[in-house]
Amino acid sequence: MEWMAWTLPTVLFFAGVGVLLACMTVFELRRPCLERRGFLPIATTRGDRLFIGLLVSAYLHLLLVGLSDGPLWVASLLSLAWLVVVLRWG
């Protein structure tokens, strides 16, 4: 595992994604969901919305790192807000 810089933020990020996936799995087993339509142009399940939210969050971070010198926590807050919006109303 020496090929990757396992810093505390890196560990927290991957642990957070792992916990999120585990919680979504338990939630799906306890309360299966049906596809629904929100503001996204396709019918989605909870897992679809989580995937879309995580994917857009990654792109937000890449945009911030690539196009500005702003602090990374700004992208993290925007990503968290986006994820909540997509999971709730997407």
Write the layout of secondary structure elements.
Blueprint: H1 8-30, H2 46-67, H3 72-89
Helix pairs in contact: 2-3
pLDDT averaged over residues: 86
The structure class reads: mainly alpha
Shape: flat
Radius of gyration: 15 Å
Count of alpha and pi helical runs:
3
What percent of residues are in strands? Answer: under 5%
Q: How many strands in all?
A: 0
Protein name: DUF2160 domain-containing protein
Pfam families: DUF2160 (PF09928)
Keywords: Membrane, Transmembrane, Transmembrane helix
InterPro entries: DUF2160_TM (IPR018678)
Report what the structure shows:
- The protein has 90 residues and is mainly α.
- It folds into two domains: 1-32; 35-90.
- The protein has three helices and no strands.
- Helix 2 (46-67) packs antiparallel against helix 3.
- The mean pLDDT is 86.
